């Protein structure tokens, strides 16, 4: 009896289901916000109304002292900071040494590093490198050629600053980058040094002394390269001729970097050499463009703070243990007739080199989270020291107080 009573209900349901095929379809649900944005961006590109953003990260000097290369396991240098590096669309660093496996490791005063050291930095996320600095020719012509050959052989890696033949230059790279929002970017990258520690084979390096005559020559060449490049962004790396370990920005370089912006069309000037971090600024070029200048991002990894002054953290050499990761986000808009690029955002992260219990030098973000971790682990000597180092850095670069990794 129960089964017979349910039969009409079952039949009714079957009839209702079969009749659905003849009914008009209901409107599709509205797309999710992310899908709508993607469709709108696609339509904008078709109509010549596109916009796109790219995020660039700029570090400082990658050095290899004995304290860095003797322990091996170079991936451990980067494991606490690699997420931020790899999250950038392009990440820049300065390799402060020749790279030559055919010769043994060398530290100061004539450096040489091996390719596995650089490969660890690449694995961490760096993909654009400056190779022009005062140590570039430490291993003479073979060192220059070996370094150039290594970077030239790496797919998806770009480097500038070394010449294939004597006397050409300045060399440059055109980096073409597709970003997540569908945009395509063309970045012109040049790297030169204002000083070398020795004159040997200087003609194989993008080396331009800091004289008025050499600067005029260089600016003329850079302006020509920019005009012919068709680039969206022009990035210039400068290894500066100035005293090491000095915190202030020289008026000489402040003036020169503005000339690189106004006379050569640079959008970003990224300087290094003194092994300490300095200030940065966003400026307006004479033609109305946004431009960004970094006067020095300090050491990214080195062994220069091998003897931290725990009781005197303001000691001059202790500044070599901190550096800056600077992120610059740029936006490109295209109305179908012309495109324009503006700086959308910038943010700095303070990084520090810590010496682990096993003697290994590792890179950490110097922030409240690190200090809290050290406090909980009762590494009180390092906690107190880095607390003071953070305070000191924020004192002479006040913008760091507003920045967090």
Automatic annotation (TrEMBL):
Organism of provenance: Treponema saccharophilum DSM 2985
Name of the protein: Capsule synthesis protein, CapA
Pfam families reported in the protein's UniProt record: PGA_cap (PF09587)
Domain of life: Bacteria
Composition-biased stretches (Basic and acidic residues): 33-48
Keywords noted in UniProt: Signal
Signal peptide: 1-21
Domain Capsule synthesis protein CapA span(s) in chain numbering: 55-304
Similarity annotation: Belongs to the CapA family.
InterPro entries in the cross-refs: Capsule_synth_CapA (IPR019079), CW_Biosynth-Accessory (IPR052169), Metallo-depent_PP-like (IPR029052)
């Amino acid at each position: 009896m129960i089964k017979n009573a349910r039969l009409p209900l079952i039949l009714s349901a079957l009839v209702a289901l079969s009749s659905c095929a003849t009914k008009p379809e209901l409107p599709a649900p509205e797309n999710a916000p992310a899908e709508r944005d993607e469709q709108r961006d696609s339509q904008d590109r078709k109509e010549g109304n596109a916009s796109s953003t790219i995020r660039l990260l700029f570090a400082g000097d990658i050095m290899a002292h004995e304290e860095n290369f003797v322990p091996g396991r170079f991936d451990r240098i980067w494991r606490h900071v690699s997420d931020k590096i790899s999250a950038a669309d392009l990440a820049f660093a300065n390799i402060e040494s020749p790279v030559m496996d055919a010769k043994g490791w060398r530290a100061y005063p004539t450096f040489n590093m091996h390719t596995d050291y650089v490969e660890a930095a690449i694995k961490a996320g760096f993909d654009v490198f400056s190779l022009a600095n005062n140590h570039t020719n430490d291993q003479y012509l073979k060192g220059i050629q070996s370094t150039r050959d290594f970077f030239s052989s790496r797919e998806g890696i770009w480097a500038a600053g070394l010449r294939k033949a004597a006397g050409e230059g300045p060399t440059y790279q055109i980096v073409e980058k597709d970003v997540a929002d569908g945009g395509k970017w063309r970045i012109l990258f040049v790297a030169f040094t204002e000083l070398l520690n020795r004159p040997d084979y200087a003609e194989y390096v993008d080396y331009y002394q800091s004289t008025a005559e050499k600067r005029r020559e260089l600016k003329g060449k850079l302006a020509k390269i920019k005009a012919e490049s068709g680039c969206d962004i022009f990035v210039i790396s400068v290894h500066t001729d100035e005293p090491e370990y000095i915190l202030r920005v020289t008026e000489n370089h402040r003036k020169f970097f503005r000339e690189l912006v106004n006379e050569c069309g640079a959008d970003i000037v990224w300087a290094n050499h003194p092994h300490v971090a300095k200030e940065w600024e966003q400026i307006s070029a004479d033609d109305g463009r946004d431009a960004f200048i970094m006067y020095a991002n300090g050491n990214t990894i080195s062994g220069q703070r091998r003897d931290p002054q725990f009781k005197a953290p303001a000691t001059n050499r202790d500044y070599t243990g901190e550096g800056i990761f600077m992120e610059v986000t740029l936006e490109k808009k295209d109305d179908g007739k012309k495109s324009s690029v503006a700086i959308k955002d910038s943010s700095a992260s303070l990084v520090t080199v810590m010496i682990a219990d096993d003697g290994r030098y590792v890179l950490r973000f110097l922030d409240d989270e690190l200090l809290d971790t050290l406090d909980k682990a009762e590494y009180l000597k390092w906690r107190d020291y880095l607390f003071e180092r953070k305070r000191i850095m924020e004192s002479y670069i006040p913008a760091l107080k507003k920045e967090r990794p």
